[in-house]
Amino acid sequence: MIIKNPQFEISAVKKEQYPKNGLPEIVLVGKSNVGKSSFINTMINRKKLARTSSEPGKTRQLNFYNMDNIFYFVDLPGYGYSKMSKQEQAKVGEFIEYYLANRKEICLIIFLVDIRHKPTSNDFLMYDYVIRSGLPCIIIANKSDKIAITKVEEATKHIQNQLNPIGDIPTLPFSSERKIYSDNVWKIIEKYI
Length: 193
Ligand SMILES: Nc1nc2c(ncn2[C@@H]2O[C@H](COP(=O)(O)OP(=O)(O)O)[C@@H](O)[C@H]2O)c(=O)[nH]1
Ligand SMILES: [Mg+2]
Fold this sequence. Notes:
The chain has helices at residues 36-43, 86-102, 121-132, 152-163, 182-192; strands at 6-12, 25-30, 62-67, 71-75, 106-114, 137-142, 171-173. It is α/β, with parallel strands linked by helices.
């Protein structure tokens, strides 16, 4: 899919501000710095439509990016930000859980982890919320440019084995530096919209 006119629509801090047009939403979930904003930019070939700096203060902010009035990418606050207090982190977790459980427009959750590392305890916790929400989900093993290209398939499989040993959740490599992975992700996204 080629998005012609991607637009940042709103940073919503309360649910009254969420879009009311009923377009399907594809939600990016992952810890701070894993590459959620970069993922959006790479998928639409823009350098900085989605802001890639983490703003740990804005724990309840959802950024809605309108993709040609076909769907939204929704950039969620990252969890596990090291400078956040335990209390703040718990609040982010609750907020994300509430949004996932109640927002009818969500058609797919894109769960990002770092291909180089074992998922963190926060990753496992958040993955659990995602699965319990019952919503369709895919796992993205991001930053795959950081490992040798010949290791990517094996490392992706390894991430899947850790999070989803049954193997029923599609798990794909991705990199904001290497464009080659976007097409496969687009194919999946198109199916869910
Ligand atoms: N090498 C590499 N760096 C990445 C990739 N994706 C994101 N980054 C970098 O990781 C940092 C955090 O990215 P960002 O998109 O802001 O993460 P977010 O907090 O999850 O939204 C930035 O410095 C990005 O340039 C990737 O696929 N490969
Ligand atoms: Mg971000």
